[in-house]
């Protein structure tokens, strides 16, 4: 029997930066060293960790190679985060279909 956890739809999925931050706590590298390994600036890494920048497909590939888990995880995390926010920002109540 398979049990799947159901996420609370009112709770925002984690931004990939939050997950990276958690993973970095277990590593013995500075954020500067991680940024160098990823081939990005410290500022870019900090913007992702602070959830100010999204994880692009290229960054997902870099993260996947660094952590050994492939780009898919990072792309899915970013997509879930973006979709959750878009769902709350889009309001079609004032839109009405135009009569043809």
Automatic annotation (TrEMBL):
SMART domains: HTH_XRE
Domain HTH cro/C1-type intervals: 19-74
Transmembrane segments: none
Keywords on record: DNA-binding
One term of GO molecular function: DNA binding
InterPro entries linked to this entry: Cro/C1-type_HTH, Lambda_DNA-bd_dom_sf, Toxin_antidote_HigA
Protein name in UniProt: HigA family addiction module antidote protein
Organism: Vreelandella zhuhanensis
